Prior knowledge:
The protein is of the alpha+beta class. It has helices at residues 8-26, 31-46, 53-80, and strands at 93-98, 105-110, 113-118, 130-137, 140-145. A hairpin with a 2-residue loop joins strand 4 (130-137) and strand 5 (140-145).
Amino acid sequence: MTGTTFSLPLMWAIIGLILLISELATLTFILSFLGLGAMIAALTSWIGLTPGIGGQLVVFSVSSLLLMFLFRKTVKKVFAGHDEAPPDYVGEKVKVLKAIPAGGEGTIEYRGSDWIAFSDSPESINETDLAEIVAMEGIRVKVKPVK
């Protein structure tokens, strides 16, 4: 039985495919550029531009970094969404269940559940008043009084 040998272009292509498929699991938008760099190294090796491993490593490194620096922000915006849009909960009015003193904590009802709420407003928010959600900070909801 004879041993199977893989050519360098085939190895680069396999590495590129593995990195591209791995990107689907991580969504970091880094592995995809490394995968594309490996594919470019496979192509340059296959057409004979980089016959040695040293040249292929240079092509892989330079093309991966160049693609990442040029296109990562754009690709991330397109596929991961825009960070500029506020979350859907910002601006929602909620009922205060336990009074929130000025600069203190209380409880609100949001989407059928009780949440710890806090306010950095100089005025307190009384029980049964309405408050407006400003942000979520961990498991606490930052609110402000509704005027």
